[in-house]
Amino acid sequence: MPGLPRVAVILAGGEGRRLWPASTPRRPKQFLRLFGGRTLLEATWERARAVPGVVDVWVVTGAPYVELTRHALPELPTGHLVIEPSAKNTAPALALAAGLIARRYGDAAVLVLPADHYVSGVGAFTEAADRALAAAAACDGLVTFGIEPTRPETQYGYVELDEPALAPGAGPFRVRRFVEKPGPEQAAAFLASGRYLWNSGMFAWQNAIFLSELERVVPELARLAARVAAGEPREAWATVWEALPSISVDYAVLERARRILCIRAGFAWDDLGSWLAVDRHGIRDEHGNVVLGTAPAVVQGSSGVTVLTEELPAVVMGVRDLVLAATRDGVLVAGKDSIEGLRQALGILERKLQELARGGVGMQAPAPAAAGREPR
Description:
single chain, alpha/beta, 2 domains, Spore Coat Polysaccharide Biosynthesis Protein SpsA, Chain A, 32% helix, disordered C terminus
């Protein structure tokens, strides 16, 4: 891989349902300005462009988000905006990108970045990315970014490290196994052992090696990439897209790859996929409250409260350990110890909304006030 052009691929097609109502299918989380003036996508774009040697950045997203992406990244060349025919998870998205990269460069060193992560410090990130790309070149393998765990997290996947791949005591490390979302006791044991890192979902590899692994373990995705690389028009290869499996690149490729490696990334990281993750990185007042959003909010007599408001002002009083989010798309009020059930609650809400749209009784209007009396 020495001498190959370096390119970055940003995955920007998710919906982020666990951040409802701030994140919705109309405006997913990668287009939110949670911690300042930049969207998460813009912050990822800037990090990617800062990596040494990166000559181009590609963005993969769905058709509903093309205009949002162009608005967020006006400098993104039209040819580097990769549009999925429909959402199919990360393995098909990366197979599509791999085909386009093969067509454009012949081969390239590829850095894969999700658009919705929290990363502290551009310098530490670019150093780790440079190291990951170098490791992929030296070892002819697929490289994942491992993050030192800071708590026994049960919502993240883990990587168990094996022996160093190049020199004793130094990285990159061979990967012994992947573990997806362990229980509390297992997560605590992982933290104590020092052998496990969080699997961040950021990767580096040589495009040709990734394509060879696709051919070996998911041949239907390799065939898609080959058709794209050969220059077939979109309407030709898009006809097979719907038949492709909807599967993550972790399950489809990395867990079955012949040579999978891991670097220890030296930066703080989080997957901003839930309100608890957003809460961890907001600016707190002396009572542990976090206030976000574009509308004013007053929090009094409360502790451990996270508030995000848009368009309407909010007053929060006398509560603790609560998430309150109010946007034009809905209102969320939840205890932090219950927030992981949001996805299930949204399923119930969607059924109620469907009943209402069909003229059902899923939602009831308030009773009219009695004659001669004003409603209270």
